[in-house]
Design a protein that fits this description.
This protein is α/β, with parallel strands linked by helices. The protein contains 14 helices and 14 strands.
């Protein structure tokens, strides 16, 4: 049963012109003064969500994006700030991209944020998808096998550091500690100082396929999975795959347990109005993500079309309606949204958390309005259902 609602904000600034007839993605460049507005926009969303009773604001780590799409380079620093200007909202790392970090620096930074915020930061790890970011900052992205190998070793190190007062590691990429003398003795192990105050650490990772190796790795470390959200398709494959990975590890779980489902949404007084209003945001989202491989099944002609102004229909580029049929996007009325979420509850009976988010390019004012509308017109249907058993028990 769905009991919690969260939202993902990847960090786009207000873009001005949007959609297929607007500035192509690779031609966007904003001055630093405008890129800096990502922080006030993040704070506005956090304050809104905190006031309205959302559970978590998920933020994404990205670098070097002068195009204005993903402009939050250090989400742990932002999370500490947001904890100071909100009362109860949690902030999720969605996600820290491990191949761009030294694993022990990431572990230290998370531990610091956990302590300073009283446990209101949720850890999250990812492998990355921007070559410009990952390769520039010393990781592997062009070679996917190297990327996964490095990522898995880094996560092993992070959890060793979290969960052990003393630890050491000998692997392909890291020897921790290095063998050397220190203050009169031979160094044999390390201690993360400080370690997180709350153990075991709650950790999440994106699931974009049903690869058994990756899912088994997640389950082995107790990592939960986020599926969908406009870029990845929302199908049963990843959710079933995660349940099967739990079963292989000896844990029986309901379908959807340990999973958060992400849905790009836009509410209006009618479905037609919602589609009309959301289309330029969807097209901006496509300009950003389609060239990175997140729109599956595109022809070469469709890939070329998304990089230029207009004419996408001539190439047969998928409209927002097709994405709605794939169930990673929703446009419609609040009542239709409640019904849509009821269907997802039925499909995934173990599901507890849903991410509802505006797509790439949506202006701040629209994002705030959509969060307010969802909280007022959709959330009560699920909140009342959640509170009813407690009321019956008290009676």
């Amino acid at each position: 049963m769905i009991t919690r609602f969260s939202s993902l904000y990847a960090g786009h600034v207000d873009l001005g012109d949007m959609g297929q007839d607007a500035t192509p993605a690779n031609e966007r460049r904003y001055p630093n003064e405008h890129l800096m507005t990502v922080f006030s926009k993040t704070e506005a969303l956090a304050r809104t969500m905190d006031r309205l009773g959302y559970d978590t604001l998920w933020l994404a780590e990205h670098h070097f994006q002068h195009e204005g799409y993903e402009c939050l380079p250090n989400i742990l620093m932002v999370a500490v700030h947001l904890a100071h200007v909100t009362e109860r909202l949690r902030v999720g790392c969605g996600f820290n991209i491990c191949p761009m970090w030294h694993p022990l620096r990431l572990a230290e930074d998370y531990a610091t944020a956990d302590i300073l915020t009283g446990g209101r930061v949720i850890f999250g790890v990812g492998r990355g998808y921007h070559t410009r970011e990952v390769e520039t900052l010393g990781g592997f992205m062009m070679d996917q096998d190297e990327n996964r190998e490095l990522f898995e070793e880094q996560v092993e190190i992070i959890f060793k550091a979290f969960n052990n007062e003393r630890f050491s590691h000998r692997g392909k990429h890291y020897e921790l500690p290095p063998k050397l003398p220190y203050r009169g003795y031979e160094l044999e192990d390390l201690t993360l100082v400080p370690r997180p105050a709350r153990l075991p650490v709650e950790c999440w990772q994106p699931i974009v396929s049903a690869n058994p190796r990756g899912l088994d790795f997640m389950v082995r470390h107790g990592i939960k999975g986020i599926v969908g959200g406009g870029s990845a398709l929302l199908g049963e494959g990843p959710v079933v795959g995660y349940r099967d990975a739990l079963a292989r590890a000896g844990t029986e779980a309901a379908l959807g347990e340990g999973i958060c489902v992400g849905i790009n949404f836009h509410l209006a007084d009618s479905r037609e109005q919602a589609v009309r209003e959301a289309t330029p945001f969807y097209e901006e989202h496509a300009k950003m993500f389609a060239p990175l491989g997140f729109f599956r099944g595109l022809t070469d002609e469709q890939q070329a079309a998304v990089s230029r102004r207009g004419g996408w229909g001539d190439a047969g580029f998928p409209t927002i309606d097709r994405q709605m049929r794939s169930r990673s996007w929703f446009c419609g009325t609040a009542d239709e949204m409640v019904g849509y979420l009821r269907q997802i509850e039925e499909q995934f009976p173990g599901l507890e958390t849903v991410n509802v988010q505006s797509s790439m390019g949506t202006p701040e004012a629209v994002m705030v309005e959509q969060l307010e509308r969802f909280a007022a017109e959709v959330m009560p249907a699920f909140r009342n259902e959640r509170e009813a058993p407690a009321q019956r028990s008290a009676a």
